[in-house]
Amino acid sequence: MVKTLQQAIAEVERLPAEDQEKIGRTLLSHVEKLRALRAEIDKGLRSLDAGEGAESTIDDFLRQKNG
Question: Residue 35, Cα to own-chain centre: how many angstroms?
Answer without folding.
Answer: 6
